[in-house]
Specification:
13-stranded antiparallel sheet; 4 helices; globular
C-alpha cells in the first residue's frame, strides 16, 4: 500500500510554486524621486498653461527658473494683460509680484493650495513649497490597473505640515516610478485629480511633460473644466 501511494505521488503532475513578489522599494527613495522629478541644481524652462472655466478660456505662456531646492521664479510672458506677473520662492517664503500695481505680496503658508492666477493649479503645484519626503507619512503598496503594474503611494500629512488635503494618493509606474495620476482627498472624498502624460527626455532624465487637472482647486469660486500645463522646454544643470 505504501509503495502504491509513493508511485501515485511520483506520477501526479507537479504544481509550480508561484513566483515570489519582489519587495517594495524604499519609501524614502520613492518620495525623494517624486520631489526631484522636475528639480535639479538649476533649471530654465518655458511652459504653456491652458485655463478653462464655464465662462472663459485662455492660454498663459510662462518662463521659469530654479536654483536648488529653495529658489524659484515664474514669470508670465503672455498674454500682454498679464505679462510680467511673477511668483518668487526664496528661503524666506513665497511671493507674488503684480506689475500694474508694482507691488510684491507675500503668500502665507495657509494659501499654498489656493488657485494660482485663477488656474487649475495651486501655488504649491507650481512652486513646490511643500515636500513629499518631509511633509507626509507614506505607505507603499502594489496596484494593477488595465494590466499595468503600478505603485500606490498613500500620503497623509504630518502634524505640523502646511498642507490642507487630508490625504494624497499617487499612482506611479512600477518600473521607473513615473507618476500616472494623483488623487487629492478632503476626508473620504476625492476633490481633485492630477493626470501625468507624454513622457519626454529632459537632459538625462525622463519626466511627463504634460500635467492635467480635473476637479476644483481650492480658492476657486466655481467648478472648473479640466486644463493642463505643458512643459515645452526645460534645461537642467547638475542633474
Amino acid at each position: 500500500m505504501t509503495t502504491l501511494l509513493a508511485i501515485a505521488l511520483m506520477a501526479a503532475p507537479s504544481v509550480a510554486a508561484a513566483p515570489a513578489e519582489a519587495p517594495l522599494p524604499d519609501v524614502k527613495q520613492v518620495t525623494s524621486h517624486l520631489d526631484d522629478l522636475y528639480r535639479s541644481k538649476s533649471s530654465h524652462g518655458q511652459m504653456s498653461m491652458k485655463v478653462k472655466t464655464r465662462h472663459f478660456a485662455r492660454t498663459l505662456r510662462i518662463e521659469s527658473w530654479s536654483k536648488g531646492e529653495d529658489h524659484a521664479l515664474m514669470v508670465i510672458r503672455s498674454p500682454a494683460r498679464e505679462a510680467g506677473t511673477a511668483t518668487l520662492r526664496t528661503t524666506k517664503g513665497l511671493w507674488n509680484y503684480a506689475p500694474r500695481a508694482d507691488r510684491l505680496m507675500r503668500i502665507p503658508s495657509g494659501l499654498l493650495s489656493e488657485s494660482w492666477m485663477g488656474s487649475h493649479f495651486s501655488n504649491d503645484d507650481l512652486m513646490r513649497e511643500s515636500s513629499y519626503d518631509d511633509d507626509y507619512d507614506t505607505v507603499l503598496s502594489r496596484h494593477q490597473e488595465g494590466g499595468t503594474a503600478l505603485l500606490r503611494m498613500e500620503m497623509t500629512p504630518k502634524k505640523d505640515a502646511a498642507v490642507v488635503y487630508t490625504k494624497i494618493v499617487f499612482y506611479l509606474l512600477a518600473e521607473g516610478w513615473l507618476p500616472v495620476r494623483a488623487e487629492y482627498y478632503d476626508d473620504a472624498e476625492v476633490v481633485r485629480t492630477t493626470f501625468f502624460r507624454d513622457v519626454k527626455a529632459f537632459g538625462v532624465r525622463r519626466s511627463p511633460d504634460s500635467v492635467g487637472h480635473g476637479g476644483q482647486t481650492r480658492g476657486q469660486a466655481r467648478r472648473v473644466h479640466p486644463g493642463h500645463l505643458r512643459v515645452e522646454h526645460l534645461r537642467r544643470a547638475g542633474g
